[in-house]
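Posted in: Structural Biology > Protein-Ligand Complexes

Title: Requesting predicted complex, alpha-D-glucopyranose in pocket

I'd be grateful if someone could produce the 3D structure tokens for the following input. Sequence and ligand are given below.
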Amino acid sequence: MRYGYFDDKNKEYIINTPATPLPWINYLGNKDFFGLISNTLGGYSFYRDARLQRLTRFRYNNVPADTGGRYYYLKEKNKPAWNPGYLPCKTPLDKYTCRHGLGYTIIESEKEDLISKLTCFVPLDDNCEVHRLDLSNRSDEPKTIQLFSFIEWCLWDAVDDSQNFQRNLNIAEVEVEDNTIYHKTEYRERRNHYAFFGVNRPIAGFDTDRNEFLGQFRGFDDPIAVEKGASTNSISHGWYPIGSHQIDLTLAAGESTHIVFILGYGQNPVDDKWSGKNIIRKTSARFILEKYRSIESVESEFDRLKEYWNQLLASYQLESSHEKIDRMVNIWNQYQCMVTFNLSRSASYFESGTGRGMGFRDSCQDLLGFVHLVPERARERILDIASIQFEDGSTYHQYQPLTKLGNHAVGSGFNDDPLWLIACTTAYIKETGDHGILEEMLPFDNTPGTEQSLFEHLRRSINYTIHHRGPHGLPLIGRADWNDCLNLNCFSTEPGESFQTTSNYDSQVAESVFIAGMAVKYGKEYAELCQRFGDPKEAGEILNFVKDTEQAIYDSAWDGEWFLRAYDAHGNKIGSSQCEEGKIFIEPQGMSVMAGVGLNNGYAKTALDSVYDKLVNDFGIELVTPPYTEYRKELGEITSYPPGYKENGSVFCHNNPWVSIAEAMIGRGNRAFDLYRRISPAYVEEFSDLHMTEPYVYSQTIGGRGGHSLGQAKNSWLTGTAAWSFVNISQAILGIQPDYDGLRIDPCLPDELKQYKIKRIYRGCTYLIDVENHNRGFIEITVDGQKIDGTLIPVSKEKNTRHVTVRL
Ligand code: GLC
Ligand code: GLC
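-- Reply #1 --
Done. Output follows.
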């Protein structure tokens, strides 16, 4: 069953009922100001950091779910109030559609001939959310309407906000001036920022105190102020500050009007933050409010936002006549890559936004899908990430987006982390040609005076792996590798203890075959950097290490039909046919083959066949099978999950593209595409009732066969699946691969894809690529009518446009 449909022309997903199985959300904002917005107008807004600078409150674990957001109440005399997004009043609507577009959401609804259209977006360069409300009276009679707006302020630090009540209930402060409600809690002391909620027309009243607005025993669904049709002009002193305006309007028969609400963030220099005794200096708010007074600015900023996205997405556009592939490649997959780049795993409905900062490995991988979109921001991100590395090459596992400092609470010791830095740096250079980035000087652990070149940072990354190997010559796993839940040195027995950071058994024995695969893959990539931009002798040394590691995999990590997963702290095998549970894991198969391991001795093919036989279900590839049925302290958090969930045997989508890419590497296009399609949102739209999460974005997990939720997805949006799926479809399957000296074209296609066209903007030149697949077993490429040898189209400085034909 579906709950809506794709409108590819407008790059929107149109939801036609508020009653989706879960809130189906969208992200507003690109740089500093962000909002999460659901199809019933739930969600929250923040400036830069979802924990530290939260503007509006969100209630995790609330019932009903997704309560609290941007609410507008529309009330005609003697009729029940209703909301454009259905919630919170739940008054049945005559019509409802929600269009989630790129950086905006529009909800159109109708009740008894009153038509409402609410457009929400964050403009490109202003720190605010614009809520444009269009109202039309379609009846033959005039309508007298009362409109109430509503948002609830969060007291900035979202963690304190949800626990430190003895303080919180005393500190709230607001100001009201010229129709605008200013939230200034803690501004009197150490903050120099404030939030505001304004509207571009006269108001009949306002409320800033939640108790006054809602009334005793009432919820968001029946505020007393709305029922009575009268705001109380309350000023919040402590308790729960909100922002609500009352606007009284009369619309003649057939008349329309538009009202613009602005939810914004302002800040001042620390020493110039007051305009009078305890009165905030409101310059930045006024600037924004003034600008969006006029509907023309709202319209032009909205158009600019759309144009911005059109231009961004233009760097990779596909026409394949398979609408599902096209819409994922051209619109939604790239869009999700941008969102994961911006927010890593921090702010979502499922990752609370109050805990984790930006993950080191997550951010490095997110870059792989983002780098072609805004390379300058990718560059900046690489430099930020590298600056939290330690001198020995290891790194903090996370950092806070606001301070860009490493997160001490989690620390380091995830031994895959350093290698991901090589992955994103080489992807960046291949896209842009900017190898100058290698000479950028960056500190370790953000400590001034420790600066070394990025090249040196990468050298330390690979050397960290070289110097941390175990008894079989395979890399030591440390706290965990990509699989955060394979905690082989933790042995945790205390409830509540962190599985990752409580290492009480640092064995120096537990080894990861996954990191071995990574070491081969990214070792080769590092060696190529040395060859091209550094010291060829070093390249040779690294290649020797790569060879040794590959050999160690053959000698000690081949189980007969697949690659082992690891050795535990006692030297026992994990992921072997000899194990009772957890016989085969996905990660070492995908990563090893992507690294080129086993291509010459048949292991690659055998391992991938085993994956297909044992791990694939209708909805993707499971992480491990059979899943663990008992907690085993020597394996860690993975065995804490019930079978079929999360790392313990769900389809953990992030690693599915690795296997698909690996299939493409051994030339099996049908398989590669089959695996691509199983988890692709556009292909699972048909059974949204089972899948439950949004059909326009990837989710982190899908229930596996071992559990009770086969096919049910969880934790949509912030997942490395976005980046890796884009790498998979755009590079491995469709075959457009940025390389140091140019664009390489090397598709591996399923039979059903006979021809397609791609427009790819690469290093300033537009490539119009026309591919025909005749299954001939060899490739022929012409560039501007000239046949070329091989698959690489060298960069050309002269041309703006190049016509490429590819015949397979
Ligand atoms: C989560 C983490 C990611 C990790 C994965 C597997 O997605 O963000 O870093 O690799 O889980 O455990
Ligand atoms: C839990 C999750 C894993 C995630 C990790 C982040 O272990 O199972 O997916 O990566 O938390 O800390």
